[in-house]
Amino acid sequence: MSEVSVPLLVIAGPTASGKTEAAMRIAARVGGEIVSADSMQIYREMDVGTAKPTAEERERVPIHLIDFVPPAQEYNVATFQRDARGVILDIHGRGRLPILCGGTGLYVRAVLEHLKFPPVPQTGVSAPTRDASIRQELQQEAEEFGSERLHARLAKIDPVAARIISPGDARRIIRALEVYRLTGQPISAVQAVDEAPSIDYNTARYVLTAPRDVLFDSIEGRVDGMMAAGWLDEMAALRERGLATSHQSMQAIGYRHLLEHLDGRRDLAQTVHLIKRDTRRFAKRQMTWLRRESGFAWLAPANEFQRRASIAVMSQGAQRLMRGEDDL
């Protein structure tokens, strides 16, 4: 099958950097639609704490792949890759510009590089590549020493899988090591997905961030705003529905902290402090991930004037794509 050439504007960056607002402005200018690459905005009923675009904002510009997965349901990057590809092709087929926008680096990489993924562990499945004792041993090690230690081990035995599994994704790392222990083969050789037709993306790629102090101030202000907007009430409602820290959706920054507060583990002031601290740390990890990616132009506006200039730069890149030109 011949390659399909699709123009794709990519806006990545750390949390609270203003990516979505920039993408919406650009989409309105050039006739684009946004494909969210955010692994937590996919969940329904988690609006405040994920900074999900409001209904009013979604009326301004179509935003795809948000607010469609129940919070008790799991969703993986391989499924996102399939869903995102379908949405991007649909947007392009209607003569509009797809804009991939988000801070989940693995989601962005999965789209751009057509990654093949090892299988996701399924609970209750009995197979020769599964052993509960090995899995428990690895889980205990991850809890005690961190998933990064296991990821370093995986990189030695299966560099292909290590490249497409985030160092923080303990569940997938453990699964890959379990398969290797049982079969002697890397999981990347045992099974992979992504049987999609070949797509050639003509991309303009940007990382939108800010100077460290500006970004951290934005993070702190965002957390305060979320709390004022009813984030704690949102978490209380999810808790009433049976959501717990074991659910994938509750790995979103802040939700676990609020759940622990509701369970009496710490007071609200301490909880908000930890959310701000861990959000700053998360932003650092996002930046570290993005620095490893190739082909991105970095924009770090420090004020509104520079922000408008950055949006103008990205808009120019979008217009080149719409004209069928390669990005400069």
Name of the level-1 CATH class of the largest domain: Alpha Beta
- Gross geometry: globular
Largest sheet: 6 strands, parallel
Proportion in helices: 40-55%
- The total beta strand count reads 6
Number of helices: 14
- Low-pLDDT sequence parts: 120-128
Strand content: 5-15%
Mean pLDDT: 89
Query: SSE order in H/E notation?
Result: EHEHEHEHHHHHHEHHHHEH
Secondary-structure map:
Blueprint: E1 4-12, H1 19-30, E2 32-36, H2 55-60, E3 63-64, H3 77-93, E4 97-102, H4 105-113, H5 132-145, H6 147-157, H7 159-164, H8 170-183, H9 187-190, E5 199-208, H10 212-228, H11 231-240, H12 255-262, H13 268-291, E6 296-299, H14 304-322
Parallel strand pairs: 1-4, 1-5, 2-3, 2-4, 5-6
What does this molecule look like?
With 328 residues, the chain is an alpha/beta fold. It folds into 2 domains: 4-115 and 195-322, Rossmann fold; 132-190, Histone, subunit A (Orthogonal Bundle), CATH 1.10.20. The chain is built from 14 helices and 6 strands. The protein has helices spanning 19-30, 55-60, 77-93, 105-113, 132-145, 147-157, 159-164, 170-183, 187-190, 212-228, 231-240, 255-262, 268-291, 304-322, and strands at residues 4-12, 32-36, 63-64, 97-102, 199-208, 296-299. The protein has a 6-stranded parallel β-sheet with strand order 3-2-4-1-5-6, with helices on both faces. The two termini are 29 Å apart.
